[in-house]
TrEMBL record:
<dbReference type="Pfam" id="PF01593">
    <property type="entry name" value="Amino_oxidase"/>
</dbReference>
<dbReference type="InterPro" id="IPR002937">
    <property type="entry name" value="Amino_oxidase"/>
</dbReference>
<feature type="domain" description="Amine oxidase">
    <location>
        <begin position="42"/>
        <end position="117"/>
    </location>
</feature>
<protein>
    <submittedName>
        <fullName>FAD-dependent oxidoreductase</fullName>
    </submittedName>
</protein>
<dbReference type="InterPro" id="IPR036188">
    <property type="entry name" value="FAD/NAD-bd_sf"/>
</dbReference>
<feature type="signal peptide">
    <location>
        <begin position="1"/>
        <end position="20"/>
    </location>
</feature>
<feature type="domain" description="Amine oxidase">
    <location>
        <begin position="305"/>
        <end position="463"/>
    </location>
</feature>
<feature type="region of interest" description="Disordered">
    <location>
        <begin position="25"/>
        <end position="49"/>
    </location>
</feature>
<feature type="domain" description="Amine oxidase">
    <location>
        <begin position="134"/>
        <end position="188"/>
    </location>
</feature>
<keyword id="KW-0732">Signal</keyword>
<dbReference type="GO" id="GO:0016491">
    <property type="term" value="F:oxidoreductase activity"/>
</dbReference>
<dbReference type="InterPro" id="IPR050281">
    <property type="entry name" value="Flavin_monoamine_oxidase"/>
</dbReference>
Length: 479
């Protein structure tokens, strides 16, 4: 029996990932942790260029985006967005009810925070915006245009936050280490605005070519999706919120056959496939942590657009005429009737009339930023209840394609591979570049390993897509 089939079969007993979900990520990757042996040899050639992410280990992010955790409610996002005493305002994707976890949600929250400030402030007041991501820069631009004196304080040595576009002569086009997709483009004008700024986007379907670990192309049945939908329907009728994992177990939806079909894939494997390639990627979290009440249904198949020309094109005009204080960590915010004061990590202080805080939810959870007085109970409760998920990427550039498919999206079913989802950039750019995605507990585990082991795991996951003519001369995996 495959390891993943066994894990799904055991969902009704012990927690699938309780141990890994409870272990906080290390501040930075370390090569001393070896969660799994390095696979050698590899049939996949060595890439010419590699870039990886570790968002859970990033001290200024502590994750990729928020998600509905067990016990959390949409109303808590609204509570987090509520102004405090007319002096302190919070923004960011975690405060968005309509589009949490998205760039458009973050941007809309910045606009909302700017309106909240204008409702109580007088033009000419000094407004400090903490965080130079899309939420902070959007708010800063709106307030500057409305006649306020605005300063943006950013902990990083760059702007953008969780939008991290890398333009490097080694790569044939800008690569996105953070956000790279306009989600549900039919509900936003963001893609049209990007095109207006000269940023190219392309339709990105979630329909994938799916292969087994042996490289066999198999159609994806609705077995896994039906099981998840049945579990969520069962959870909706319960008197209290339960995790998706508990809903799968207690509803009986996870009681699927572990007997392999002719393709070598069982019904239980297809449930694992749905969990790994849909639920985990959408939330960045394990099913033990996802809310059975508020986990959304699978998104539309053809509503996303892939950003190809640099997501940072959004920032070109936002900072014009605005003071930016970079590489400055805010450790304390004091606020009251007379205004607000920020204490920076270097010991300096900065005064303002009002403050907009746009740091990620993951940072708020660490409590490295002190509030004086403390945030109201509703805000603290929301920060504690809402979840912060992790989705990491590895970008690989090859001398030439070694794969035998033109499909833009690849997935695998069964087996033990860490990277189950790949984006093939050839159809979009003509360049032999692949992007591997890893989320939830697997991303947290891999965040603690060194670059070589991270790469080895990625290359091993690509073996099902190797062209048969390339399998005769295996290439040793990186050591």
């Amino acid at each position: 029996m495959k390891r993943r089939t066994f894990l799904i079969g055991s969902v009704s007993g012990l927690s699938l990932v309780a141990l890994t979900a409870c272990v906080p990520p290390s501040p930075r990757p370390t090569a001393s942790v070896s969660p799994s042996p390095t696979p050698t040899p590899s049939l996949v050639p060595k890439p010419e260029n590699v870039r990886r992410t570790s968002w859970s280990a990033d001290p200024f992010a502590r994750g990729s985006f928020s998600f509905p955790a067990v016990g959390a409610t949409p109303e808590q996002r609204e509570a987090l967005a509520t102004p405090v005493d007319g002096r302190l305002f919070l923004a960011g994707e975690a405060t968005s009810i309509d589009a949490p976890g998205t760039v458009q949600g973050a941007r809309a929250s910045g606009m909302r925070a700017a309106r909240d400030v204008q409702a109580v402030a007088t033009a000419g007041e000094r407004i400090a915006v903490i965080g130079a991501g899309i939420a902070g820069l959007t708010a800063a631009r709106a307030l500057k245009d409305a006649g306020f004196d605005v300063v943006v304080v950013e902990a990083r040595d760059r702007i953008g936050g969780r939008i991290d576009t890398v333009t490097d002569k080694k790569w044939p086009f800008p690569i996105e280490l953070g956000a790279s997709v306009v989600r549900a483009s039919g509900t936003t004008t963001l893609d049209e605005e990007l095109i207006g700024l000269g940023v190219i986007t392309a339709p990105f379907s979630r329909t994938s070519e799916t292969r087994t670990s042996d490289g066999l192309v198999v159609p994806v049945p609705d077995t896994g999706a039906q099981a998840v939908n049945a579990a969520l329907a069962w959870a909706a009728d319960q008197p209290a919120d339960v995790s998706v994992a508990r809903a799968l177990a207690d509803s009986g939806a996870s009681k699927l056959s572990t007997t392999d079909a002719d393709t070598g894939v069982s019904d239980a494997d297809w449930l694992d496939y749905e969990i790994t390639t849909v639920l985990a990627l959408n939330s960045g979290a394990a099913v033990d942590d996802q809310s059975g009440w508020y986990t959304p249904a699978a998104p539309g198949l053809d509503e996303d657009r892939l950003v190809l020309g640099g997501f940072n094109g959004l920032f070109d005009a936002l900072l014009e005429g605005i003071d930016l204080l970079g590489s400055s960590v805010v450790t304390r915010i004091a606020y009251g009737e007379s205004g607000a004061s920020l204490r920076l990590g270097n010991g300096e202080s900065l005064g303002a009339d009002r403050v907009i805080v746009t740091v990620p939810l993951g940072v708020l959870k660490t409590k490295v930023m002190e509030f004086d007085p403390p945030l109201p109970f509703a805000h603290r409760g929301a920060i504690a209840a809402l979840g912060m998920g992790t989705l990491d990427k590895i970008w690989l550039q090859f001398a030439e394609p070694f794969w035998d498919t033109d499909a833009p999206l690849w997935t695998t079913v069964g087996g033990d591979d860490d990277f189950r989802v790949w984006i093939n950039m050839v159809p979009f750019t003509g360049e032999p570049v692949l992007v591997g995605l890893v989320a939830a507990e697997t991303a947290l585990r891999l965040a603690e390993v060194g670059d070589d082991e991270f790469l080895a795991a990625a290359l091993a996951s690509l073996v099902p897509f190797v062209s048969p003519m390339d399998t005769a001369t295996p290439t040793p995996a990186p050591k």
